[in-house]
Write a structure and sequence with these properties.
Alpha-Beta Plaits; elongated; 697 residues; 4 domains; 5-stranded antiparallel β-sheet; Beta-Lactamase; 26 helices; alpha/beta
């Protein structure tokens, strides 16, 4: 500070002495009289020294403060440099410039100009604290640039230093923090303050992930606090305490809450989802057990929802789900739980029932509400629901079993014609237990590879050449022998075991088809049925690619059979998956074509190569019958659309064969030629059947 101020102070003194009113005081050859004489060499030497001193001082000041990168130092430094530049320029002008051009020298102006620089230095140093260059003062400037709130407390919890951002977080001025206790800024202040100090004393460092901080206006915000010990003297004074960093985590908490809500709530209806439902069900059962109360569980399904969804679109379907969810919620108490557990299924948890019959009151209220039509866009739809009911502890005593009892009752309601509710009855229990046992046996059977494939040939009528075979799964149970798929496929589908079972079937069928090439029948394709669950998996096409690569089967020799119903469950995914398979050469066949509700739409959107006419039309096929007209129309449609093949399945009679041949149906499948047979028997059948000409293989 003295170094910066010295030049203007000397200029000021020189100017004062050079005034006429003090000239008589100056005596001697080397006194001020010589220094102030412009013609004296002493004056020239002194003036050159002072100008150089000032220039070097200004340059060093510029390097240290103007180039420091600190906006605060930059703004403060402008005051000193501006004053220095003006003062230095003024002194040069008055001391040298004006006398040189003959203007009378005015000695008192030099101290006035020097005063400009002195005032600038005073303003910067005293008013702006520019020259507080101790490490402690420098640290002040650093902590003010931090994004987090920063404070230093002593061992008693008194705040000694706080940065600006802390004031912004708590909405108070910085000076209001100083010498205040940190207790008043926390919810449960004394306890939190004690924990911070004791934790820092114990380990030297501590993190408090969530602390509620209080503002003077009564509001609060969550913060994460990082605390570390402060050794003696680190703050510039003989004190010890702790350094605290405050980070406002309000936005993070809001994001976490939103993610937590999304994880446990259905996005369409905003009702609790399956996970939250089962969590609450277990909780309510434990509560009912403690207070010896009854609890009702109701599972509700919207009748024919899939048809409504396919007819009017997914947006209409979502709107219907929202309306149904709100109607159910308004039909029960606030203490009850209304959840959407999947698809068009909802579930109600009804705790604190005084008697089991009370659930019937809720049931009646719900069915009354659903008598009102639902407006979807400009249309009004009349919808109905089916419901299954189970009572704790009357029917089951665990959440899983209670849910399955209610699900069984729902199944009975649907079997009874829909638009009704059924309460679980004891006679339903054996079939329920059988289903549980079946699921476990299927899982075990997949692991032990008890499932085997039978093959039914697809024969060209004119040449009697076997052009393909449909792979049909059977369960070779060690105790019961061969079990029909009608007994286990639906259970596998509902339980999700159809995914690993279907993959196993596909791989075994491809392996077997490769073996046919080894016996000279490499032109025979294999057809594999695919379930709705398999088709809806986003990676199904990749699974097929992997199996083809693993087994070495050509894609053109694999035919994937799907039903119209399976593909309509999620048309967009189905179209994408089947197109991906068709692109690599896999053939796509529609099983039981014409029995669905959207056959023509199917042909328009899906990459179909083969149509299979189902047994529904074949078993009653006669001349001049409705079935004949339908079959003829399907064959003509396939020809117009240039599809590769039409296969009639379930053909058993000679009359059916002749009529199909007259209708130009080229390939048939059924007991007329052969029943499904084991792999080794089918290879023998292939070897005994005629081969096509070489150019048609």
């Amino acid at each position: 500070c003295l170094a910066i101020a010295l030049p203007p102070v000397i200029f000021l003194t020189k100017g004062l002495i050079s005034g006429t009113w003090i000239t008589g005081v100056v005596k001697g050859p080397l006194g001020w009289g010589e220094i102030i004489n412009p013609s004296s060499p002493w004056f020239i030497a002194f003036f050159t020294y002072m100008i150089g001193y000032c220039a070097i001082g200004l340059w060093l000041f510029y390097r240290k403060y103007m180039k420091s990168g600190s906006k605060t130092k930059y703004r403060k430094g402008v005051w000193v440099l501006s004053g220095g530049f003006v003062s230095l320029s003024g002194v040069v002008m008055w001391e040298l410039g004006l006398p040189a051009i003959g203007i009378k020298f005015v000695p008192t102006m030099s101290p006035c100009i020097a005063m400009v620089w002195i005032l600038c230095i005073y303003f910067a140093v005293v008013r702006r604290n520019l020259m507080a260059l101790t490490p402690f003062a420098a640290a002040h400037e650093i902590i003010d640039t931090m994004n987090e709130g920063f404070l230093i407390i002593d061992i008693n919890g008194k705040i000694k230093i706080a940065n600006k951002n802390l004031g912004l977080l708590f909405k108070v001025k910085r000076k209001e923090f100083l010498d205040s206790s940190i207790e008043k800024f926390f919810e449960g202040g004394e306890k939190i303050a004690g924990e911070i100090i004791s934790s820092v004393k114990l380990s030297g460092r501590a993190i408090f992930n969530e602390v509620t901080c209080l503002r003077n206006d009564g509001t609060h915000f969550p913060a994460q606090i990082s605390a570390s010990s402060l050794p003696p003297g680190a703050s510039g004074e003989d004190m010890e305490g702790a350094i605290l960093l405050f980070q406002d985590i309000t936005e993070r908490k809001l994001t976490e809450e939103q993610l937590r809500y999304m994880a446990y709530h259905d996005q369409v209806t905003e009702l609790p989802n399956r996970f939250l439902f089962f969590d609450r069900l277990e909780h309510e059962i434990e509560r009912a057990k403690r207070y010896k109360a009854f609890l009702g569980l109701m599972i509700i399904d919207i009748d024919l929802f899939k048809e409504i969804n396919d007819t009017y679109g997914h947006e209409a379907g979502d709107q219907l789900l929202r309306v149904a969810g709100q109607r159910l919620k308004r039909s029960v108490r606030k203490s009850d739980t209304t959840a959407r557990i999947g698809g068009d299924e909802f579930a109600l948890i009804l705790p604190d029932l005084k008697k089991p019959e009370d659930v019937r009151v809720v049931e009646k209220r719900i069915f009354e509400r659903f008598k009102e039509p639902v407006r979807i866009g400009s249309k009004e739809l009349k919808i109905t629901i089916s419901a299954g009911i189970a009572i704790y502890p009357l029917h089951c005593e665990t959440s899983d079993l209670l849910f399955k009892c209610a699900d069984s009752a729902l199944y009975s309601a649907k079997e009874s014609g829909r638009n009704t509710a059924c309460i679980f009855e004891p006679q339903m229990r054996p079939s329920l237990i059988d289903r549980f046992q079946m699921v476990e046996r299927i899982r075990e059977g997949i692991e032990k590879r008890e499932f085997v494939l039978f093959y039914q040939p697809q024969v060209e009528l004119n040449t009697r050449v076997v052009v393909g075979a449909e792979a049909l799964v059977r369960w070779n149970d060690p105790q019961r022998g061969i079990i029909s798929p009608y007994e286990f496929i639906s259970v596998a589908e509902e339980s999700g075991l159809i995914i690993p079972l279907g993959q196993y079937i596909l791989e075994e069928a491809c392996k077997e088809a490769v073996s046919w090439k080894e016996i000279g029948r490499g032109y025979v394709k294999v057809a594999v049925n695919v379930s709705a669950r398999q088709l809806q998996k986003s990676d199904f096409s990749q699974t097929v690619r992997n199996i083809l690569k693993k087994t070495g089967l050509e894609p053109s020799r694999l035919e994937i059979e799907v039903t119209e119903t399976a593909t309509m469950q999620n048309m967009e995914i189905s179209v994408k998956t089947l197109k991906e398979l068709r692109e690599i050469g896999v053939r796509i066949a529609v099983d039981d074509f014409g029995t669905g509700y959207s056959s023509l739409l199917y042909l328009k959107r899906f990459p179909v190569s083969t149509l299979k006419i189902g047994q529904t039309f074949i078993k009653d096929l006669k001349e001049n019958s409705t079935e004949e007209e339908i079959v003829s129309a399907i064959i003509a449609l396939a020809e117009r659309l240039k599809l590769d093949l039409v296969i009639a399945e379930g053909v058993e009679l000679n009359g059916q064969v002749k009529l199909l041949q007259s209708l130009n149906c080229r390939v048939i499948q059924g007991y007329y030629f052969a029943k499904p047979m084991a792999a080794d028997k089918f290879r023998e059948f292939l070897l005994s059947s005629p081969e096509p000409p070489q150019d048609k293989r």
